[in-house]
Amino acid sequence: MCGLAGRASTDVLGPESLSVLHAAGRFLAPRGPDDQVIVRRPHFEIVFRRLAVNDLTAGRQPFTGDGGRIVVAVNGEIYNHRELMERLPGPGPRTRSDCEVVLHLYRHLGTGFLPLLNGIFAIAVWDERNRRLILARDRLGVKPLYHASVGRSILFGSELKAVLAYPGAPRTLDWQALRHVPNAAFPFPRPGAAPVSTGVHGVSFVEPATWVEWCDGVTRAHRYWRPAEPEDTLADPVGRYADLLDDSVRLELMSDTPVGIFVSGGLDSSLLLATAARRAPDLEAYTLVEPSIRGTGDIEAAADLCRQLGVAHHMVRVDQAALEETVAFDLAMLEHFVWIMDFPVFDPEFLVKHELHRRLKTVRPESKVVLLGQGADEFAGGYSTLGFQDWPQWCAHNRRLLHESLLGELGMPDVYRPLVSERSTEERGARATGAHEAWQVIGASDLAAYNLWHEDRTAAANGVEARVPYLDHRIVDLLCSVPRERHAELFFDKEIMRRAAGRHLAERFTRRPKVPLLPEAAPAAALVRRLATGAFAEFRERYLDSGRSLFAPAAMAELHRLATGSPMADRAGYLLLRCMAISVFDRICDGVSDPAFEPPVLHRHAEPLAVAA
């Protein structure tokens, strides 16, 4: 987990932007608390903040080559770097950093190196001779990367706030992206085939599996990977899945610092733990404890497996009482989460994951890497039994979701959507899915828009790198290549994973049912209402009574009243908190380029509470 930000321009850059680079570096410091390096060229500048994970002493970035004419910065990990370096001619690497291989690959192959990488990454390459900037992002969008064209320049950064540190950056809210009212189940509109919005007009993400080329003021985007298509002759998918997961875990344990793992007690994290524990004897596990989770048996299963494998196990309380003992439910908390999430939304999942990462850093301050089960569901049918009787019903549900997403992409008003036939979007849907099914497209977009997004931000805020072995692109390609006639057999209730897990786990673990992170909506809604109502008095003073309020004070006061005790309390609480978050986001976007701007700080009462084993 590192952070980078900078600019390329057709004009010669003067020294006046040095203060902007320092400001961007300060904003990115939680992502990279170990080091800061600034590199400047006549038409290019970059600040890099490092989280030292591999080659702690010598692996400083950016890397430079060809007499300084090539500058390379990488946020992330290149897991197959040794294999790639062995293929290249010439002198070997100067460091043991996995990221240095990108410099050598670019020198020999240009942008053709990207499909060779196995890793999670956001990459910036400056080629001074050709006055060319390359911005690239990993296949599934694990690592974030923003960019914005401004006049004769392009701005880029690992976080939105680092881009907006430049005074000329766009900062007008994208209300189309903010139109959705969140709920406990999913706080964003599912984008389907449409790009995910950053929330600011004129600032874009580098899309997953894409590299953006800027050369003399012209920007072009290029796709370098798409998931494999179904293969009628695919042999032994279960065995191949098990082998690939073993190898993915082996690669992703690469670290010169301690590695932790989040274990829920469900199938995904249990299989990950059993696979990793054989290779990492000092692995330590962390589990969320919340009343609605207790009823599922997951916590007991996690403890049982850790005891069986001899893995140190830390359980962290995240019920409302425990959370209120550790953090203040005040305006500063909301401001902090809008700041770290780079988007005007708050969901209780962000808070509990944030506290889980914070507990990891409390238990082992030297820890910088954690393995997550994220991504196991989306390509293996993980949610297919949550409310669905069979595979056809699950597939039909996802086709409806994609249909609704495509209508949203068309900008169709809500009043007409129930009246539109699904056939009217079949052609657009076919372009969105290609050879794949709607549930696979929806799963991939959910990952980029929500799951990987919030995992990255909550980990980065605590100086932790989150790794996702289930999203090794080889595993994704394998799952996408399963022929459709075998989908019901292998994907309903994640059967392919359950069979593969038999290699390492007893049946009492492999046949555990799928449950959500927070199985009941009530605790989530209660936390939302608690934050919205608890922070409102201070919010009203700072944002509504300031003379530059985005929302009408009377309307916000009425929402607050409804959230404190009406039959509409849950929905009013979510809407109130969203409006408050948008106000905070707007203030951040407007003010972050001011040299006097200070990032909001989370008020902490204590460290996250542990539960006795």
From TrEMBL:
Top-tier EC class: ligase
Q: In which pathway does it act?
A: Amino-acid biosynthesis; L-asparagine biosynthesis; L-asparagine from L-aspartate (L-Gln route): step 1/1
Q: Known InterPro entries for this protein?
A: Asn_synth_AEB, Asn_synthase, ASN_synthetase/amidase, AsnB_N, GATase_2_dom, Ntn_hydrolases_N, Rossmann-like_a/b/a_fold
Q: Which domain of life is it from?
A: Bacteria
Domain Glutamine amidotransferase type-2: from-to ranges: 2-184
Give the enzyme's EC designation. Answer: 6.3.5.4
GO MF annotation terms: asparagine synthase (glutamine-hydrolyzing) activity
Gene3D superfamilies xrefs: Glutamine Phosphoribosylpyrophosphate, subunit 1, domain 1, HUPs
Q: Which Pfam families match?
A: Asn_synthase (PF00733), GATase_7 (PF13537)
Q: Would I find Metal-binding among this entry's keywords?
A: no
Q: Which reaction does it catalyse?
A: L-aspartate + L-glutamine + ATP + H2O = L-asparagine + L-glutamate + AMP + diphosphate + H(+)
State whether keyword Protein transport applies.
Answer: no
Q: Which UniProt keywords apply?
A: Amino-acid biosynthesis, Asparagine biosynthesis, ATP-binding, Glutamine amidotransferase, Ligase, Nucleotide-binding
Similarity annotation? Belongs to the asparagine synthetase family.
Q: What is this protein called?
A: asparagine synthase (glutamine-hydrolyzing)
- This protein's species is Actinoplanes sandaracinus
